[in-house]
Amino acid sequence: MANYVLFETASGYSLFERLQSEEIGSKLESVQNSIADLSKFSKMLKLKSFAPFKNAADALENANDVSEGIVNPSLKAFLEMNLPKSGKKSKVCLGVTEKNLAGAIKSELSIDCASDEMVQELIRGIRLWADKLLGQLKAGDLEKAQLGLGHSYSRAKVKFNVNRADNMIIQAIALLDQMDKDVNTFAMRVKEWYSWHFPEMIKIVNDNYKYAKLIKVVKNKAELSESDLEAIAGICDGDESIAQQILDAARASMGTDISPVDMINIQNFADRVISLAEYRKKLHGYLVTKMSYVAPNLAALIGEVVGARLISQAGSLTNLSKYPASTLQILGAEKALFRALKTKGNTPKYGLIYHSSFIGRAGQKNKGRISRYLANKCTIASRIDCFSDSPTDKFGQALKKQVEERLEFFDSGALPEKNIDVMKKVMNDLDLNMDEEVSEPVLTGKKRIADDSVEEEKPAKKSKKDKKDKKQKKDKKDKKEKKDKKDKKKNKD
């Protein structure tokens, strides 16, 4: 049972001595309601000591230590100074909010700590009446200190977030996917709207961006002339034949006439589609730049967009690097996996990595094998990106080459290069030290295993022979016993 309570505030540490409180009926509503009454609660606890922090930096340091379960030197000095020594008659037990901090105090200061329900209730009451119980603080000072410490604590957490670069990639890929949906929806609306006037142009030009730009040039089909061919050909990548097709289609079009007001609205909407499509290109360029900085090897291996989707699905590059290859392989196909487990059907072979070009190039029977191999290489690439000091895409390019060789192996049977040899080459190119004797223990290990198995086989054969002999002896013994019994029976008769 805690007879002292430690309370951490934004201004400093406070130590309360427990005078009286109901332990047995602590869960009763009447006892819990007594915490809401200051006159009753003030009889339960008494402020023994208060140690303010030196400045804002000291408060932030102590707050970080408390959250991580570390005993700060100032907290250690405060407890040693104010807590009495525990004896046989009077045992000292300190009530602490954080369980991790309680364990740290017990191991470092050899003070018994408690974090049970009773302690939590008392701390709830202290937090409720903190301004009244801590008489040294002026009214409103504690709130100001809490606000200042809260801002600095949050700022420090964001600043020291190791995944902060990943956040930009996660937001960019989410926006890119949303932009793809929006541009497709808006382009479909533009085509449907303008097709009432010029329906033939959809069959000639399929690209949404080019179609929206052509609306700006063609406008009213009745006014289209030979002088517009150059502008139309410029939008169609210099293809004059397509420009001539559009001109011929406009002259023989079955579409209805359109009023100037309707054409202005269609053109305004086409402007919006063009601006969104151009922004989407810029966003893709930004994503490529960020991926080349944050995860260059993963981007080189599987592409920027698929790599970014993997990071987004995992939550961060650190999380992705911790995943085994089997988890990365089905990342993004969780619904299909749980459905298969529920119905006891076939589990999915791939998730997000299905969008990689390697899966599409593999034959139907080899898709599962290449997805497993690709997931393995993606795991290696993500770990190199996460834990390497200097970012480089050399490893990613080497891993990509290995996947290419594996695809060739499935088709032609040509043996691919070993992973350890590939890694050695890259390390030598980057002038990094690597043990050249890494492959030797692997070989010796294999020999050793082979030798051990041979040695184990001999006694196994021997043991079988022994068993056979024992069985034969037992059978003989049983026959002999039966014979003796028959003889005895005959003698009696």
From TrEMBL:
GO terms for biological process: ribosome biogenesis. InterPro entries: Nop56/Nop58, NOP58/56_N, Nop_C, Nop_dom, Nop_dom_sf, NOSIC. Residues 461-493 have a biased composition (Basic residues). Keywords: Nucleus, Ribosome biogenesis. It holds the Pfam family NOP5NT. Its main location: nucleus. Belongs to the NOP5/NOP56 family. This is Nucleolar protein 56. It comes from Parasitella parasitica. The lineage of its organism: Eukaryota, Fungi, Fungi incertae sedis, Mucoromycota, Mucoromycotina.
